[in-house]
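lol forgot to send this yesterday, sorry. struct tokens for the thing we talked abt
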């Protein structure tokens, strides 16, 4: 690092974005890697998004993360998308190439990386609750990683059917939408059960309508919620003898994948997880 060189800049744009933990996590990882990089958290309205992305280009940002409400709208301002981002129709991470920005989606990749610390997804039978942005990202990446099948359990028929169709028609794996009426019964042969809904976000006591008696010890159970990471759903799964994966692993890994895309360097994921836990007061 020389004092004559300019710092590299990346950012997170969203609204509302105060309280987003990415900056804290990323700046710790930059410091641990000895990189003179800065990560800015920027509140940007939907009306200002085009000017804000043009500003990133004009100022030579290396890339950035995009969060609610910009994950779909940002696509119109990018040069091209990766395969996963194109399938998902949403972008949470952009990186600069010579003449513009490329859109990627690291949410599902982060989930799969956390999953692979425990088990290989190939051939697994999956039950996925939810069909929103996070669930869609997870489902596409699980499909690209050749799971055997995905049951998409979702309240809204349109979103549920749309995701199941995407998986069968474009990703090429067995999938179906199952309406979520009352307490859902888990099939005995499910290998992986995922809460991809926002139930549990900021509410440790909130529980999914699931028949808890249908948990089996053989099931691996995951939750996307990272605040709090120990949800009532994961607790119930652990009480039934299942192995559980919390949403912090997904968050750390999606951040680590973005870090590697921008810098070319593998970050210290333990440093990132520690930073997150400190920020969230866990
Ligand atoms: P969306 O708003 O896009 O989707 C929300 C999903 O939750 C929908 O499928 C919705 O169902 C379902 N849902 C919400 N409330 C209920 C309910 N009471 N009963 C049944 N279903 C319900 O949100 P996101 O996908 O963007 O985010 C979901 C969660 O994922 C959030 O908690 C977010 O913090 C987390 N997340 C975690 C990440 C990580 O790295 N750990 C990364 C990204 C997100 P319906 O379609 O029927 O309305």
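and heres what i got for the seq, position by position
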């Amino acid at each position: 690092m020389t004092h004559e060189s300019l710092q590299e800049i990346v950012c997170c744009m969203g609204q509302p974005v105060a309280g987003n933990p990415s900056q804290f996590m990323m700046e710790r990882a930059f410091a641990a890697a000895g990189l003179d990089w800065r990560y800015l958290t920027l509140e940007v309205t939907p009306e200002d998004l085009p000017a804000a992305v043009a500003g990133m280009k004009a100022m030579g940002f290396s890339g950035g993360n995009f969060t609610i409400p910009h994950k779909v709208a940002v696509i119109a301002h990018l040069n091209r998308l990766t395969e996963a981002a194109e399938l998902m129709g949403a972008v949470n991470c952009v990186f600069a190439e010579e003449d513009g920005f490329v859109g990627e989606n690291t949410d599902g990749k982060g989930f799969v990386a956390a999953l692979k610390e425990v088990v290989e997804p190939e051939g697994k039978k999956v039950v996925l609750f939810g069909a929103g942005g996070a669930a869609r990202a997870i489902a596409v990446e699980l499909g690209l990683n050749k799971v055997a099948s995905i049951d998409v359990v979702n309240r809204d028929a349109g979103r549920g059917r749309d995701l199941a169709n995407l998986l069968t028609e474009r990703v090429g794996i067995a999938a179906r939408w199952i309406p979520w009426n009352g307490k859902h019964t888990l099939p005995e042969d499910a290998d992986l059960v995922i809460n991809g809904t926002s139930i549990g976000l900021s509410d440790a006591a909130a529980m999914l309508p699931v028949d808890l008696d249908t948990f089996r010890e053989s099931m691996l159970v995951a939750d996307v919620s990272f605040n709090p990471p120990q949800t009532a759903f994961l607790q119930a799964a652990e009480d039934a003898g299942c192995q559980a994966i919390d949403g912090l692993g997904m968050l750390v890994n999606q951040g680590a994948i973005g870090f590697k895309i921008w810098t070319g360097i593998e970050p210290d994921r333990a440093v990132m997880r520690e930073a997150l836990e400190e920020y969230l007061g866990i």
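The chain is about 35% helix and 20% strand. anyway ping me if u want another try
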